[in-house]
Amino acid sequence: MILVTGGLGMIGAHTARALLDLGEDVVVTSHRRGDVPSFLDGKVVVESLDVTIQAAFLALGERYAVSDIVHLAGSVPADDPVAYFRTDMTGLFNALDAARVWGVRRSSRSPPTLCRAPAYTPSYCGSGRRGGR
Fold first, then answer.
1. Total-model pTM
2. What residue numbers bound the domain in which 84 lies?
3. Cα–Cα distance between 113 and 116 in angstroms, integer?
4. C-alpha span between 124 and 126 (Å, rounded)
5. Cα separation of 61 and 1, whole Å?
6. pLDDT 10s digits, 36-45
7. 130 lies in a domain?
8. Cα–Cα dist 102/105, whole Å
9. Dihedral Cα 53, 74, 40, 129, nearest 10 deg
10. What are 95-132's pLDDT values in tens digits?
11. What would the DSSP string read from start to end of 23-72?
């Protein structure tokens, strides 16, 4: 089973869909969202997860035989860029630790600035905010 953290976000949901199209079993996590896109509804397992809580992250391995991790969960930049990167790095370290503990075959992480850069958010990320401050 492939774990997709942030799997109800735009990139995560479409990643989960692509994995389903390849015949993979997928469990997606989300910390804040609860609405499952129609193209995933009934096709994936959905778990609530705060990726910054190591014990909660590792507990997923007790419920699922995770073979691969696609770590796409991340926070939204606010006024404190240090807190933003601390949160994202904690989630990344917990994903890497889980990969080690579970003996996963592969793990991947999107660049944390892909759709969350404070100075520029591409239109495909849904915010409509472009360039500068």
1. 0.80
2. 2-125
3. 5
4. 5
5. 10
6. 999 999 999 9
7. no
8. 9
9. 150
10. 999 999 999 977 777 655 444 444 444 444 444 444 44
11. T--EEEEESS--PPPTTTTTTSEEEE--TT-HHHHHHHHHHS---EEEE-
Burial annotation 70-104 (CB, 10 A radius, 16+ → b, else e): bbbbbbebeeeeeebeebbebbbebbeebbeebeb
Query: Torsion angle, CA of 80/85/87/93, rounded to 10 degrees?
Result: -170
CA dihedral 126, 113, 121, 6 (to 10 degrees): 10
The residue written with tokens 């193209």 in the block is 39
* 133 in a structural domain: no
How many domains would you assign to the chain?
1
Contacts of 19 (CB under 8 A, 6+ apart): 2, 4, 26, 70
pLDDT cut 90: percent of the chain above it? 59
Give the Cα separation of 122 and 97 in Å (integer).
31
Is residue 20 within 8 A of residue 39, CB to CB? The reply is no
